């Protein structure tokens, strides 16, 4: 084998090795959850650690793996380091990973039903096309049931914010004569499931959007920012 062929073989190995860095970074359920949270907006190390029940040092180590693969970026505000996704293409990658797993792994569906509890099949869903059609007709209210900080960082245009843990005491803010479409972080986020159950138990016509901000952002559709 001549030197030119040796160089090409070395280059090919190096190329696929670089691709593998991304695959390795994705090879952790904890790091995938971190990307899912960062798709909602920037987070500090401390916030991610608290949300995921991790020690700060453990969370930092996972984030460094994501950073080495250039999937996240950092910026500092005073004494805190904040992480963001490196781009909407990272959100698209995470959404694709979930979709491929959901298509090819039967265990994903079983785990999802175990996560959401009994009665998941009773919840009606709408897709993006149907949601947009209802919005054009003025026949639906879009309800964002994520925490307020995530809503402020980015939400669907026209959405109203009522976090799921505040929904029961704020039911008077939800109209009784309008279809309610609830969404949260992504297709595998349980908050919208819980919200629909609460709303339907109180007589509202509630549906779950079969995606969340992750998929909306990954598709390149506009995301609005600002508090409720």
TrEMBL record:
Stretches assigned to the Rhodanese domain: 136-225
Pfam families: HTH_5 (PF01022), Rhodanese (PF00581)
Residue ranges occupied by any HTH arsR-type domain in the UniProt entry: 11-105
Transit peptide is among the record's keywords: no
Protein's UniProt keywords contain Magnesium: no
Entry-linked SMART domains: HTH_ARSR, RHOD
GO molecular function: DNA binding; DNA-binding transcription factor activity; thiosulfate-cyanide sulfurtransferase activity
InterPro entries: ArsR-like_HTH (IPR011991), HTH_ArsR_DNA-bd_dom (IPR001845), HTH_MetalResp_TranReg (IPR051081), Rhodanese-like_dom (IPR001763), Rhodanese-like_dom_sf (IPR036873), Thiosulphate_STrfase_CS (IPR001307), WH-like_DNA-bd_sf (IPR036388), WH_DNA-bd_sf (IPR036390)
Keywords: DNA-binding, Transcription, Transcription regulation
Protein name in UniProt: ArsR family transcriptional regulator
Organism: Streptomonospora alba
Species lineage: Bacteria, Bacillati, Actinomycetota, Actinomycetes, Streptosporangiales
């Amino acid at each position: 084998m001549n030197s030119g062929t040796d160089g090409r073989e070395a280059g090919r190995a190096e190329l696929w090795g670089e691709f593998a860095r991304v695959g390795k970074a994705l090879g952790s359920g904890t790091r995938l959850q971190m990307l899912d949270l960062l798709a909602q907006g920037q987070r500090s190390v401390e916030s991610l650690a608290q949300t995921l029940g991790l020690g700060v040092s453990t969370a930092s180590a996972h984030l460094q793996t994501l950073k080495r693969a250039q999937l996240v970026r950092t910026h500092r505000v005073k004494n805190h380091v904040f992480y963001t996704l490196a781009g909407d293409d990272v959100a698209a990658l995470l959404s694709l990973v979930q979709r491929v797993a959901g298509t090819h792994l039967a265990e994903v569906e079983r785990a999802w039903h175990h996560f959401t509890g009994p009665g998941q099949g009773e919840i009606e869903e709408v897709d993006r096309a149907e949601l947009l059609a209802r919005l054009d007709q003025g026949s639906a209210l879009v309800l964002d049931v994520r925490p307020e900080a995530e809503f402020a960082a980015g939400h669907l245009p026209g959405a109203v914010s009522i976090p799921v843990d505040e929904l029961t005491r704020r039911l008077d803010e939800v109209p009784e004569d309008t279809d309610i479409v609830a969404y949260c972080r992504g297709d595998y986020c349980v908050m919208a499931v819980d919200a629909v159950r609460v709303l339907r138990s109180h007589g509202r016509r509630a549906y779950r959007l079969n995606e969340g901000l992750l998929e909306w952002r990954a598709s390149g559709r506009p995301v609005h920012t600002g508090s409720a």
